[in-house]
Amino acid sequence: MADFHQNGNIATIHNLRTRSVEELHYELETFAQTRKISLILPCLFSELEGPALSNILKELSEVPYLHRIIIGLDRATEEQYRYAREFFSILPQNHIVIWNDSPRMLELGDRLDTIGLAPQEPGKGKNVWSCLGYLIACSDSAIMALHDCDIVTYDKEMLARLVYPVANPNFSYQMAKGYYPRVGDGKLNGRVTRLLVSPLLVALKKVIGDREYISYLHSFRYPLSGEFAMRTAMLPDLRVPSDWGLEIGVLSEAWRNLAPRAVCQVEISDAYDHKHQDLSENDSNAGLSRMSTDICKAVFRKLAADGTVFTSHVFRTLKATYYRCALDMLEAYYNDAKANGLQIDRHKEEKTIELFSENLMRAGQSFLENPHEVPFIATWNRVQSADPNFLGDLKAAALADQSEFT
Asked: Name one GO molecular function term (predicted).
């Protein structure tokens, strides 16, 4: 049974198991009559061949309140784009597959490059940013939701619970962040949240003192979840990170642009599992190793922007404090898992903590050497200011690809 705890920093919308998904759908259909709801699905072509996406589309085909679904397709050839068009055609809703690697889209990227506003690296951040641009260009949705395409435990109730807090006109929330337990195959998952983010925030509070931003991040039960919903008015000024700090970056943007009472977290699932990233101990530019470094840098940059002074001495102290906090929290996670009949490999978990502590120092050194690094893609407001026709041309290119490559 779910609890009803509120932390006092942001609101938590629980699933108290007192309401059916049919009731939620009925109410969301009512809201959607005057507040259209769109969904963004960023995906790689390889995910069309995975175990999750077919079920996601089956569940989405039964969602009655969605006005539009925007699929951002990365790493696809022309033949694969044609296949993707057919693959997603089972969706009854108005939908479009944006081929991010099409000649038209690449030409638009070159156009941005000439004015210094092109995204610096491919990836999920760029994919999401392009889909947001298309949605803004459509100018007909009040609510935007986003989730990944590798959720193997997906069901339509997850989406309903995610969008409800921002779709309800009687609520003041501008952004909702999904949360859930990370359990699958008899194991306790969510390594980066458990073994990096949570102990890092505790360590930061001990080393640099209490900060509102730290308390804000610490309020989220699963800050690295890839599921969130927003009211679209905030999208044109949203800075999307281009590195692997996307989820932390979006939370930081909500902190920058919104009052805490305009942000909530919502329980969307009892059982959530998706594709697991490799730890990549021997490659700092891949897997969870790269992710942990980018997350640390994202947190350090935000704290520095709020006035925190970092030095090499601070980072050395932070590493030692983090390491101790992470081991203490591992003990709690281990006991929690055992009490629930789940597995944790303590040796692998401690090796992961050692890797994350080294990456914390790597992130700190990178920050000190290049404190002005800004791995954010330009906001759509800035793009519009520099090239007023760009959004319209982006929408036209996506529609032209859809027409030509049917």
From this structure: transferase activity
